[in-house]
Amino acid sequence: MLAARCFSGVTVIPAGREAEQLSSLPVDVLFVGAVPSPTLETFDRWGVRNLRGLASLPDVALSERLGQEGVRLQQLARGSISRALVPVETPLIFEEAIELEYPLMLLEPLAFLLGRLLEQLCARLGARALATQELRLRLELENGWHAEDDCCPSTALDPSDRRIFQRTLRLPVPLLDARIFLKLLQLDLKANPPGAPIVKIYLSAEPVRPRAAQSGLFLPPSPEPEKLELTLARITGIVGEGSLGSLEILDTHHPHGFRMRRFAPAEPQRLGPRSSEKPESNNAITALRIFRPPVRATVTLRHGKPSHIVCSKRIQGDILWAAGPWRSSGDWWEQEGWSRDEWDIAVQAESYIALYRLVHDRLSGRWFLEGNYD
User: Fold this and answer.
1) The model's pTM
2) Which of 127, 149, 276, 309 is the most exposed place for a label (fewest CB within 10 A)?
C-alpha cells in the first residue's frame, strides 16, 4: 500500500495499483525542490512528459544511459520503492511572551508578570522531566522615552520605535524552582534596570536534564545550590559584577595576572587510600603577604642597589640586606604594558628584622612595597 502526499492531504493507493495511479503525474514531480537537473532536460529531449512514459522505458537501456540515478527515478515512477516513515521530532522550545496594553515603568508589577511566566515555564519543563540551567529575558522597550514625560504616556506605539533589553542568567546546576528564578531575576534587574518603559516581555529557558546527586556518608554537608545561588546574587548586587567569583590564573608572566570567573562548586572528589608516608615537618615554609594596594616608598640607591627606604613611620631605615633584582616584563604590544624589577630586602624593625618584597616600576620610575614575608 502506498501513501502519496498531495497539497490537499494524503491519498492512500491500494497495493498493486501504484503505477496506474501515478502514471498521469508529470515527470517534474520527481525533481520538486531540486536545482535544475540535466536528467530532466534529457527526459524532455526523449519526449518523456509523465511518469507513464518513464515507467515504460527499458530498464537496461535506461541504466546504460543514466546510471543508477535513472533506475531510481524509474522505480519512483512505478511506485516500487518502499521506505519506512521516520517521524521527525521538532526541538522543544520553552518560551513565554506577553504583550502589554500600556508601557510598564515599575519593577514591582514586572516581577508579578515574570512570576506568571516562570510558573508556566517550570510547569512545561516539569511535565517533560526537564530542568533549566539558563534563563533568557528579553524586553521590548519604548524608545525615545524621557523621565519628565511619564505623566503623558504614549497612546500609540510604533513597533519600529522600540529597542531591546536582554539579560541572561546562567546557573551552575540545573534547577526547577519558579520562586528561585524570580528572586534571581529581581536581583539582576535591580542591579541592571531596563531604563525605559516596557511594552513586551519574552522569557525563555534552555532545557537540560535535571541534576541527580546523592550525598556521601563521610562527606561534609554543602549548601544547597538554590540558596548558594541566591546568596551569590545578593553579594553581587552589593559589590558589583566582576568582583565576586573564583580566581582564574591567566597565561601570562604578570605576577597579578588573574581574572574573576563565575563561581561554580566543584564535584566532590573521592577519598583515596591514605598514604603511609608522613610529610616532613622540618621544612620551613615562607609566605608572602601581598599588600593591596601596594604601599608607595622612597628608596635611596647606592651602587645600583637599594640602601635606604622610607615608606611609613613603621617602615623606614637602612636596608640591611638586599637580593635581586629579578626583572620581568610583558604585554609590551598592548597599551597596558609592564616592566618591573623585584628585590627582597631586610629592614631593622623595633625588635626584629622584617623581610619585604620591594618592586621598582621601570616604566613610571616608582618604588613600592608589594608585601612582607612571614
Assistant:
1) 0.49
2) 276
Backbone phi, psi, residue 264, to 5°: -140, 125
- For residues 257-273, give the mean pLDDT: 64
Round the CA-based radius of gyration of the chain to a whole number and report it: 37
- The residue among 315, 228, 299, 234 whose CA lies nearest residue 263 is 228
Nearest-angstrom CA–CA distance, 226 and 229:
5
Sequence-ordered list of residues with C-beta below 8 angstroms from that of 181, at least 6 positions apart, any chain:
118, 122, 135, 169, 175
Per-residue pLDDT tens digits for 292-346: 888 888 888 888 888 888 887 678 888 888 888 888 888 777 777 788 888 888 8
What's the gap between Cα 179 and its chain centre?
A: 23
Q: Burial-class residue 273 by CB neighbours within 10 Å (0-12, 13-18, 19+).
A: exposed
Chain-centre distance for alpha carbon 286:
40
| Alpha-carbon distance values, 116 to 123, 166, 178, 197, 201 (Å) | 11, 19, 9, 19, 12
Question: With 60 as the cut, is the pLDDT of residue 45 above it?
Answer: yes
Query: Residues 283-286: contacts with CB within 8 Å, 24+ apart?
Result: 286/373, 286/374
Phi-psi region at 81: left, alpha or beta (left = phi > 0; alpha = psi -120 to 50): beta
> Residues near 300 by Cβ (< 8 Å), separated by ≥ 6?
306, 307, 308, 309
Distances (CA, A) of 208 to 88, 94, 135, 178: 20, 11, 12, 16
The candidate with the shortest Cα–Cα distance to 320, out of 352, 345, 349, is: 345
pLDDT at residue number 149: 35
Please report the pLDDT score of residue 117 as a whole number.
92
pLDDT given for residue 121 in this prediction: 92
Residue with cell 608572602: 288
146: pLDDT confidence band, cut at 50, 70 and 90? very low
Phi/psi class of residue 251: alpha, beta or left (left: φ > 0; alpha: ψ in -120 to 50)?
Answer: beta
d(CA 168, CA 162): 20
Residue 107 scores a pLDDT above 60: yes
The least confident of 249-253, 255-259, 279-283 is 279-283
Answer whether 331's CB lies under 8 Å from 256's CB: no
